[in-house]
Each structure stands twice: as C-alpha cells, then as structure tokens.
Design brief:
The two termini are 23 Å apart. 77% of the residues lie in helices and 0% in strands. It has 17 helices and no strands. By secondary structure, the protein is mostly helical.
Length: 491
C-alpha cells in the first residue's frame, strides 16, 4: 500500500531536479552536478565508460570463480582436501578486503580512474603466478595477489558508476556491475571451466584456467586509458574547470581529443569544503556515518558469506555425491542462472523501489530457499531449482547493497566508506566457506543451508536502520551531521 507514495516521492524528486536543471548553475555542488547530469542525460560517452568498466568486471568474476572451478581437479592431481581448497578462497578474499581498503584510501585522495588500470595489472600478475605455481604455497600466494587486485577493481567500479550518473539512472548503472559480474560472470564461469577442461587434458589442466584469464586483462587495460576522472571527485577537490571539461566530454560524446570551448555546467560554491590530504577518511567511522558503516558491514557480511559458500562448495559437494567434474559444473552453471536473473532484477528495481524494501524481500526469499535446500532437496532436480532461487536472492541482495553503499557517504569519503563495506563482505566471503565446509562435513547439506538461511534473517533485520536513499542526489559537499545532510536524508 505504500508503493504509490514512494513513486509519488520519486516523481517529486525528479520534478525538482528538472526545475533545478532549468535554473542558473548555482546552489550546492550536489544540486549543480545533479542538475548537469539531468540536462545531458545518458550519452554515448556514458555507454563507452560503462562498457570499459564492465569488461574488466566480467573477467574479475571469472577469476573469482576460479577456485571453485579448479577445486575438484586440484583435489585429484595434488591431493588437496576441502580445507586446503577453502584456504585458497580465504587467501583470495582476505587479500580482496585489503585491496578494497587500500584502494578506498587512495581514490579519496588521488582520484578514481588510475586505480582502474593499476588494480587490473595486479590482478593479471596474480593470475599468471597461479598458472605457473609449482606447489601449493606459491598457488596460495598467487591467489593473494589476485585478491588484492580484484578487491580494488570492484570497489572503484562501484564508486565510478555511482558518480557518473544522476539519481534517476544511478541504481541501474551500478546494478549493471552485478549483472555482468555475479550474473553473466558467475553463470558463465562453469562454462569457461568446461571449455578449458575439454580443450586441455592431464593433471595440470587447471593451470589453463588461470593462464587464459591473464590474456583478456591486457586488452581491458588498453581500453581503460579512455575512462576520465569523475566530475564529482574533481569538483570535491575544487577542480571546477576540469569537472566541467569531463561533463562537456560526456555531453558531446567525446572521451578523447581536444575540446576548445568546454561549457560551464557547475560553478564554485561559497566557502566550499576543502578536502585535505589527511583525516577525511575517518569521517566514515564517525558520527552518523559510523552507524551506516556498521549496519551495511553486517548486511554485506551475511550476503557474501551465503554467496561465496555456495560458489566455492557446490561443485565439490556435487562431486562428493558421485557426479563427474563436468557434470557438476553443468549443474552449477544452471544454478548460476539465478545469479543473472537476480542481478538483472535488482538493476530493474533500482530505479523503481526503495533500497530497504528490495533488501528485505530478497532476504526473506533467500531464507526460504535456503531452508528448502536444507530439508526438501531430496534429488538433483530440487537441488538445482532451490539453488537457482538461492542464487537469485543473494545476488539481488549483493547488487542492492553495492548501489546502497556509495549513496550513504559524501564524496570526500565515499571511496573509503564504500570500500570498508565491500572489504567486510570480502572477509566474510573468505572466512565463512571454511565454516560452511566444516558444517557440511559434520551435518551435511541440511546443516549447511540451515546455517546460511539464518544469515538472511540477520540481514533482513539490520537493513531496516540505515536512512533510505532512493531517488536522492549523491551528497557532495556537506559536513557530516549538518543541516544539508539532514535535508538530503530526510532526518
């Protein structure tokens, strides 16, 4: 019954932004940039940026699934147990958390765009190290390097996609990251494994999974040279002329080449917030922002724990039930179709429903599908059906959290605040599969998925407390706790 009122609020916000777009370029930076984005709309330049960011994200997703794909082969050729395979994932996701935190500090101080290429170089180097690893310790070290680059890559992608679009399109734009990563990437990862294991044979065929992922990373690095810095970051640093230049490039669909007469979309505001080289990152851990950080960290820990447990252990679980490696990967691929549907659904709902409603509904569905997997999945058909629903739910949660997180912070600390949340998810994703594996070994499939169902219940509770950001402009230049922030978030 509340839905019409929410839609009415969204229309009111859009009407106000349209009126702002028709007025002179005055007011806060948040209003000026939002008005500029409303005026230029979504251009071909936007689409090029989205493509260049998503191309890297897709291969990141394949790399994230690499341990699950190669796990059964490593178990056969190197005699690894479930714990050692789980530890490879722990190394990856622990490093992912560190990479996200480091990247968050860097992008808030020096900008977003350069880290896109740097993180991809780190990620590619780690893939190559995994491919040539002579023993388990070197392979684990390679997974650590991969994780560090992977973590920074996703964090920067989320922040940049949020900062290049107006409120009307922002949710869908950020949602496309998980359509590409958790959707297409996770679904096609088993197919990639099947292709590699069909083309290559022998006990070392798992090396080709890592080696082939090194090649496309080089191609993505070349294309990403054309991604500009975000106008929001430039404006927050007082670089108004550079911000206007980037917006002009977006408006004229010209990411490279000389522009002699850039338009003035935004102007400096009186007494602008000066971003200093030290201290601003602490804002994410103080006052109202601290509460938001803690709540979203709990939520993302629950969703990542469920998702990565499923990704990491399902192929091994199916093999332990007597299915061949390729057969297990095919079943996993079908289950991962739920990830694609979930990511696409989340991207669609991002511009239509409030964040907290989407999160609550998906958490309830995830809990029900987890319990169904635990107590009703008596044959492979039901395992696959409930697996599809489980992945559908968890990817809606992850996608919505990804777009919710950057909306909760002002520009000066958005990178670090978002990175803290994503890092918490990575740590949870790295550590919880060890717990899930131990529960599976002792209590089987029912015990494991009952545990995962409980995680969704916790998530449904904590997401009720952060402020709703649906349809609101991103905060640019207000200090935490002041009157402008209260106006933006409705406090």
């Amino acid at each position: 019954m509340n839905e019409p009122s929410e839609l009415s609020k969204e229309r009111t916000v859009e009407k106000d932004l349209a009126q702002e777009a028709a007025t002179p370029r005055t007011g806060s930076l948040a209003k000026q940039i939002e008005g500029a984005y409303q005026r230029i709309g979504v251009t071909g330049a936007h689409r090029q940026i989205v493509f260049m960011i998503l191309l890297g994200v897709f291969f990141d997703a394949l790399e994230q699934n690499a341990v699950g794909i190669t796990g059964p082969i490593l178990r056969q050729s190197w005699g690894l147990g479930a714990t050692e395979i789980g530890l490879l994932n722990t190394m990856t996701f622990t490093a992912t958390a560190l990479g996200r935190l480091a990247t968050g500090l860097i992008v808030d101080k020096y900008g977003r765009r350069h880290m896109l290429v740097i993180n991809l170089i780190i990620f590619a180097g780690g893939s190559l190290l995994c491919a040539v690893a002579p023993n388990y310790p070197i392979l684990a070290a390679g997974r650590f390097v991969v994780g560090f680059g992977l973590g920074g890559e996703i964090a920067v992608a989320v922040i940049m996609m949020a900062e290049f679009f107006a409120a009307k399109h922002r949710g869908t734009a950020v949602g496309l990251i998980n359509v590409t990563a958790a959707g297409l990437g996770n679904m096609l990862a088993p197919a990639f494994g099947i292709l590699v294991f069909t083309l290559f044979d022998g006990p070392d065929k798992w090396r080709w999974v890592f080696g082939l992922l090194f090649i496309p990373a080089l191609l993505v690095m070349f294309f990403r040279r054309f991604v500009p810095e975000t106008p929001r970051f430039l404006a927050s640093q007082g670089k108004i002329d550079e911000a206007n230049m980037v917006i002009t490039r977006l408006a004229r669909n010209k990411l490279s080449g000389r522009i002699a007469d850039p338009e003035t979309y935004i102007t400096a505001v009186p007494d602008p917030v000066v971003v200093t080289a030290s201290g601003h990152w602490k804002d994410a851990l103080r006052g109202k922002l601290l509460k938001r950080t803690v709540l979203l960290c709990i939520a993302v820990c629950m969703s990542y724990a469920a998702q990565i447990s499923m990704l990491t252990l399902m192929p091994t679980i199916l093999v332990s039930r007597g299915y061949a490696v390729n057969t297990s990967l095919w079943f996993t691929l079908i289950m991962q179709s739920g990830s694609l549907l979930g990511a696409a659904t989340a991207a669609y709902l991002a511009s239509r429903l409030p964040r907290k409603k989407v999160l609550t509904a998906a958490a309830i569905l995830g809990c029900l599908s987890g319990l169904s997997m635990a107590f009703l999945a008596n044959d492979i058909v039901l395992v696959v059906i409930f697996g599809v629903l489980f992945n559908f739910s968890v990817i809606i949660l992850n996608t919505t959290i990804w777009l919710f997180a950057p909306e909760l912070y002002p520009t000066r600390t958005r990178g670090f605040g978002t990175s803290i949340i994503l890092a918490a998810g990575s740590l949870s994703g790295g550590l919880f599969p060890l717990i899930s594996g131990a529960v599976f070994d002792s209590a089987g499939l029912p015990g494991m998925f009952t545990t995962l169902a409980v995680l969704f219940c916790v998530l449904a509770i904590v997401v009720q407390f952060p402020p709703e950001t649906f349809g609101k402009p991103l905060e640019e230049d207000s200090e935490p706790g002041n009157d402008e922030e209260a106006a933006i978030y409705g406090h």
